[in-house]
# Entry
Amino acid sequence: MLTSTQELLETARRNVYAIGAFNVYNLEGVKAVITAAEAASSPVMLQLHPSALKYGKAPLVALCMESARRATVPVSVHLDHSTSAQDIRLALESGVRSIMADGSPLSYEENRAFTRDMTALCHEYGAVVEAEIGRISGTEDGLTIAEKEAKMTDPDQALEFVHFAKVDSLAVTIGNVHGEYKSPPRLDFPRLEKIRRMLDLPLVLHGASGLPEDMISRSIQLGVCKFNVNTEVRQAYMEALKDEICGDSPKDLLEIAGEAIAAMAEVITDKLHLFGSVGKAHLHETPYARSLAAYEQA
Ligand SMILES: [Zn+2]
# Structure
């Protein structure tokens, strides 16, 4: 069931769990996310990084939208980390109603203005916007931000930013990194708690690959209701391909695709358990759930 991101996040926040947002690049990725979510009766988000959008363009967006519509669990489709008004327009015109307008590479003033303009545009389409202040370090899709350039989210600035730009959710930087954690992760929970106290909106944590269970659950308790996962799923995909292609007995193309889907789905299932969203599909308000409830009452 194609569902709005805002509904997914608000319901998760109210019931103290989080939605897993998984980056996808092709049919195998989409199948892995939907298969895992359906088997776990979990809501989920399909995310397209701008590099995926550049690669797959409108046909890839259409694949995500149609897969979300046909899923038996609530699914939303989201454009991740977009710094380009052109990409945001393409996604909106292809039916995506959930956008991350990412002005974090810009100065604070420019980020504010970019995010406000993109939010106004997205709201015209009835789309919701996630933004980021502070800057997350690490590597994602070939883009590396050095640790010294990383900036933690300042709670006072976050308050001012959200009111000015009128965004619907906020990605925070509290020590989380994109890609692999080079040393054991350390998250600044007092900072998260302060942000939580000051802001009444869904909080998002990027870089959930490699975060241990206790940090995930503490983050959820402190208002995080969306985790972005990319690296671990990609690694599972690449490993599966390597094993299958380099194995002794060459397999058929679809068999290899199936192995890759299964490997990704395993990682995704683990994350859905960590995020607490397993078995929560029924809590979400969807047109389908509403019509089912009406049918059962009649
Ligand atoms: Zn990210």
About this structure: The chain has one domain: 5-297. The longest helix spans residues 253-275. The domain at 5-297 is CATH 3.20.20.70 (TIM Barrel).
